[in-house]
Amino acid sequence: MVQSYDADNAPDSASRREPPADGCSDATLALQWSRVRARLQEEIGEVEYRNWLRQAALHGLDGDEITVMMPTRFLRDWVNKEYGGLLTSFWQSENPAVRRVDIRTRPTGATNAVPLLDEPTVSVGRPAPAARRENDDRSETVAPLDPRFTFDTFVVGKPNEFAYACARRVADGPAPGFNPLFLYGGVGLGKTHLMHAIAWELSQRADEVTVAYMSAEKFMHRFVSALRRQSTIEFKNELRSVDVLMVDDLQFLIGKDGTQEEFFHTFNALVDSGKQIIVSADKSPSDLSGIEDRLRTRLGCGMVADVHATTYELRLAILEAKAARSGVPVPGRVMEFLAQKITANVRELEGALNRLIAHAHLFDRPVTLEAANEVLHDLLRAYDRKITIEDIQKQVSEHYHIRISEMSSVRRARNIARPRQIAMYLAKQLTSRSLPEIGRKFGNRDHTTVMHAVAKVTELMAADPDFAEDVELLRRILAV
Ligand code: ADP
Ligand code: MG
């Protein structure tokens, strides 16, 4: 009988044969397989092993032939070509009965199939965080946590090690001197990821900790609707009853005086009663313009940690971690290429990798440099070609049928001001110009005006899919 180690795949009866004369037991074979794998890992290195061979499963010994199963045809062919020789020689030295190694694909329907893209790294059985508990009357206030955003999946490097250490410290329990924890940095650099990671960690603790996580926008909407329903007292009580309050992207409270006031009071009430506050923003408290000084002062009086722009090394490490989790082998050269090219932020880098992986799955083709160039064509073009602010102004003016001179004019009518804000937003997204530099190109405006435009457009995009599509269209036109 074929000795199967893959419980889900009973061997088909046609291939059943008697065990070899040396009567190798299941346990012996399993032991030999684990030694073969250890030797492979040693030979080709941890990363390569993880990429290509992690999903190899021993099927059994049939006569003089060992069968190893791979989840996809592509992996089967790749492993056969690249590692078939090594596999055979390691097996032969472990077990003299073995002459050949047959690498096959698992029949469809096998449970150990290729993991989904972006598979959640949190197991399903994990208890829901306090903030999401069902029948909890807070559930309306808080946003759900992303199960992928844990400390385990956060790759630490020079640019983010300080922020990471602070987040860890706060997640470990009462952290004097870390209240509030203020995380700041550019878009897509991991602030939200760290906040969710803290929330997950706290919700795992034995003692009940209530965590409320929400975006500043959500805070604002909740507050405004409470005002409308004349239920601000309940809103206040609700917020003030949590142990940990997290408000993400605080820059969106800029200019919202009433909401800021409310946030300020909530903030004070919580801090005074020893509760933890965690806030993120795109700027440090001292650079956040448009907020009241007393709030700024309070925001800066705990721990302020910035998440810096990524380095090549960090980008590469993030790609390696994400590729390994996807289960699709991504050659080192491809990762180096992406880490070199896609420098804007982690979100974009992740998006590029996901596209490559999806493509590999879909066509059952290996990820190669050629495939990367082809699949990421549009994205890479945008990086190759230096888009200028003038290009953006021209394109946006044409799109909205206004004169290009309006980009620098003082007119504030919405049909002019909105396209101008979109152009500023795109300039921030598509060029490496700083906010003051962008401001200068738009009629010598202040950098806070640009910042406000970026915040406004981001906010509108989140709220209005049509608007988002329009901006996205412009972005794509400019990026080709
Ligand atoms: P921000 O809130 O700063 O705009 P996010 O936390 O939303 O950025 O991060 C954007 C994406 O990049 C997320 O999918 C996140 O998981 C990922 N990411 C950012 N930094 C890291 C990191 N150091 N390790 C792993 N993933 C990261
Ligand atoms: Mg965020």
Describe the structure.
This protein is of the alpha/beta class and 480 residues long. It has four domains: 2-117, GMP Synthetase, Chain A, domain 3 (2-Layer Sandwich); 139-307, P-loop containing nucleotide triphosphate hydrolases (Rossmann fold, 3-Layer(aba) Sandwich), CATH 3.40.50; 312-381, Helicase, Ruva Protein, domain 3 (Orthogonal Bundle); 389-479, Chromosomal Replication Initiator Protein Dnaa, Chain: A (Orthogonal Bundle), CATH 1.10.1750. It is built from 19 helices and eight strands. The protein has helices at residues 26-44, 46-52, 73-94, 161-171, 191-204, 216-228, 232-240, 257-272, 293-299, 312-326, 332-341, 346-363, 369-375, 377-384, 389-399, 414-430, 435-441, 447-463, 465-479; strands at residues 57-62, 65-70, 100-105, 181-185, 211-215, 244-248, 276-281, 303-307. The protein has a five-stranded parallel β-sheet with strand order 5-6-7-4-8, sandwiched between helices. The protein has a three-stranded mixed β-sheet with strand order 1-2-3. Strand 2, helix 3 (73-94) and strand 3 (100-105) form a beta-alpha-beta unit. Helix 18 (447-463) crosses helix 19 (465-479). The chain is globular. Residues 149, 153-155, 160, 185, 187-193, 318, 346-347, 350 line the site of adenosine-5'-diphosphate.
Bound molecule types: adenosine-5'-diphosphate, magnesium ion
* Share in helix: 40-55%
Biggest β-sheet strands, sense, barrel: 5 strands, parallel
Radius of gyration: 27 Å
Structural class: alpha/beta
Number of extended strands: 8
CATH class of the largest domain: Alpha Beta
* H/E element sequence: HHEEHEHEHEHHEHEHEHHHHHHHHHH
Give the amount of beta strand, in percent. Answer: 5-15%
Annotated CATH architecture of the largest domain: 3-Layer(aba) Sandwich
Task: For the record, give the distance between the C-alpha atoms at the N and C termini, rounded to a whole number.
Answer: 60 Å
